Amino acid sequence: MAQASRGLYVRVGALILVGLGLAVGFVLFLASGKLGQHAATYETYLDESVQGLDVGAPVRYRGVQIGRISEIGLVAAEYHRPGGEPFGDVFQLVLVRFALDLSRVGDMPSLEESIRLGLRVRIASQGITGVNYLEIDYVSHPERYPPRQVPWVPRYPYIPAIPSTVAQVTSAAEALVARLQAIDFEGLIGNLAGLVTDLRGQVQSGDLGRALAEAATTMTTLRGVVQEAGVPLRPSISTRQRRQEPKASTMSVAQSFGTFMPASIEARMMEVPSGTVISLPSMVSVTIFSEREAGGAK
């Protein structure tokens, strides 16, 4: 009885394993068949971390999936250095190979022409989940990211890569921090303190202080002289006018000034502060009632 039960368990376990193997094979068959008919493999080299980018991740062109990543590795493991070649930056890159479904790409220019027009590859992030994918697009200034010169012959067609948005922000922040660290803040603060000390010394006992003291003394002396002389701070303008009376003779101010000054005219003299606009003509006529003519009229 126990032996029969053991044989049953073995058969059930074998059936389960076979079913799982068939399911995995079927999925791989469908995936390979979908890209295998019109698929082409390309490779690129990334100069940044590929954390979150795995084999099987999608390759998108402006959000449209056109392929999948097939291989991720290191350049140093795939392309060996020639004899005497130094271990430069190119051997520190990350190698990424991906398959593109050309049927989904459509009628595009040749690879060389596309690269000249700005076709580049970069890592992009899918939302806030941390899952990355490979994005292919045309950049507006391809001269800023020229194709990288490598000392080996790529096994697959090569598409240049550009830094991701996260890498660009990180690089800019590091450059800013480096520039801030290069500033001598202690020396700058010391120079500022010395400048304030020198300015305080000039105001208290230097040439600037003496000049300010002399200017204050001069203003005080001028104010005293003006007050003693009785001269107003603003010059005044005198205007003389008199309304015309009937049956009178007219003479100009220029003719009458200094020769005859009736009391009625003096009563109509006004003092106007300097700067006041007088809306009167430049020639002011003064009308004086003549007693002789008045007597003749009687």
pLDDT averaged over residues: 76
**Uncertain residue ranges:** 238-260, 263-268, 274-298
In whole angstroms, the N-to-C terminal distance is 168 Å
Radius of gyration: 50 Å
In percent, how much strand structure appears in the residues? 15-25%
H/E element sequence:
HEEEHEHHEEHHHEEHHEEH
Shape: elongated
Description:
The chain folds into 3 domains: 35-163, no CATH class; 164-204, no CATH class; 236-297, no CATH class. The radius of gyration is 50 Å and the shape is elongated. The termini are far apart. Strands 1-4-3-2-6-5 form a 6-stranded mixed sheet. The longest helix is centred in the first third of the chain and has 35 residues, at 2-36. A hairpin with a 4-residue loop joins strand 5 (119-126) and strand 6 (131-138). The chain has helices spanning 2-36, 75-78, 102-105, 111-117, 165-182, 185-205, 207-229, 253-256, 263-267, 291-297, and strands at residues 39-46, 58-61, 64-74, 94-101, 119-126, 131-138, 236-240, 249-252, 269-273, 285-288. The protein is an alpha+beta fold.
In short:
The chain has ten helices and ten strands.
Characteristics of this structure?
single chain; 298 residues; alpha+beta; 3 domains; 6-stranded mixed β-sheet; two-stranded antiparallel ribbon; 10 strands
Please render the helix and strand layout as text:
Blueprint: H1 2-36, E1 39-46, E2 58-61, E3 64-74, H2 75-78, E4 94-101, H3 102-105, H4 111-117, E5 119-126, E6 131-138, H5 165-182, H6 185-205, H7 207-229, E7 236-240, E8 249-252, H8 253-256, H9 263-267, E9 269-273, E10 285-288, H10 291-297
Parallel strand pairs: 2-6
Antiparallel strand pairs: 1-4, 2-3, 3-4, 5-6, 7-9, 8-10
Helix pairs in contact: 6-7
